[in-house]
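re: ur msg from earlier - yeah i can do the zinc ion complex, just paste it... oh wait u already did. ok heres what im feeding in:
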Amino acid sequence: MERSARQVLAGGVVLTMNARGDVFSPGVVVVDGARILHVGGEGSWLPHGGETVVDCRGCLIMPGLVNAHTHACMALFRGLGEGWSRHRWSASAYAPPYMDRAVPADYYWGAMLGGLEMLTSGITCTADRFSHMSLIAEAFDRLGMRAVLCHTLRDVGRAPEWEGALSLIRRWGTSARSRIHCGIGPHAPDTCSDDLLREVRRVAGETGARIFIHCAQSEAELDALRGRGHAGGVRCLAATGLLGPDLVAAHCIYVDEEELRLLADSGSWVAHCPVSNARIEGRLPPVAEMLRRGVRVALGTDWAVSNNTMDLFDEMKCAGLLNKVAAGDAAVLPSAALLRMATVDAARALGLDAQIGSLEPGKAADVIALAMDGLHLEPWHDIPATLVYSAKGRDVRHVWVDGRQLVRDRRPTHIDVGALLEEIGRIRRRIRGAEA
Ligand SMILES: [Zn+2]
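and the outut:
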């Protein structure tokens, strides 16, 4: 166990991401057990004796990044959708025939691979969803990460899938104070009937779970919804009572002005996954316009099948670049806003802003320390711009979740990476069959 009662992270530049925008250079973060006790300038903390001092000289200390949408276990199929058209993506069961050859236990190992990729690149919390979620919850628990997990619901297999979702909630609960807890995850408006979506809202009210859904992610979805009398995915969510500040809707590519107003007025969240949108659909949601109209937006990597990494530093950069091109305006989505979309705003989207997203006393000690000495980073004229456009996940040197150091000098403290990769290799050979 890499936990000391009191740790002092000292000597680094501290980027708090608090509402005042405080930066302490050099600064200190004092961690007591699982919580942050103090954040301030170097001289603001007098050692009491008995603390473990962690030398963070040469590092930028900042809140762990928060991934608003992904499916970690699908790292197993990284790269198998190369060159697919949007029609093939929407028609496929993701990665046939390979998914047919996977057994449930494989998804545990996929979540270990994807989760460890996220953790070592500075993502300390993720919203994750798929099937086999009881196994995936065990993986996130073993990794020591923070996660909000949903068992995906659709009309197909509705009764057993509901049982899977409810048993996940019974096991892990819905409390934001629990490192691992559950939301409710209807798949998308076109795969869930109006009746199922209304049931989701009712169960969310009973359990206190937040709602996570894909929405307006393809033209095929819009076609299907027109047949049910809905002119768009967001309108379908409005009609079934799903919109609200506890809803996180991934993608929202195809939205019109009225739907932007519905999203903004309801306080609903959009999980923006620009790389996945580019690779699957070849289109982006109108994010600059969303922000201008007050729609709340957080960033997600989506799965590695269509990204192909889960690195929020890359995602921030791509979100900036792609949206500037889409808007024809280089001034939209400034770096400071992109950084908030991967920290404080994403924490708020997940209902975790009282727990994480910024370095402030009382919050959970989910902290990363990024090595500042890379040639691609120096000199540090503008911290947000350097983090968004120069930094990479591999620059992250240390990671703590709930005060427990999970990554030290870029290596996990608690996971045998070699053994994990051997297991992934065995799965890869099996699912590729004769091609392996
Ligand atoms: Zn997704």
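cool cool. The pocket of zinc ion is lined by residues 69, 71, 214, 250, 302 (CB under 6 Å). ping me if u need the other ligands too
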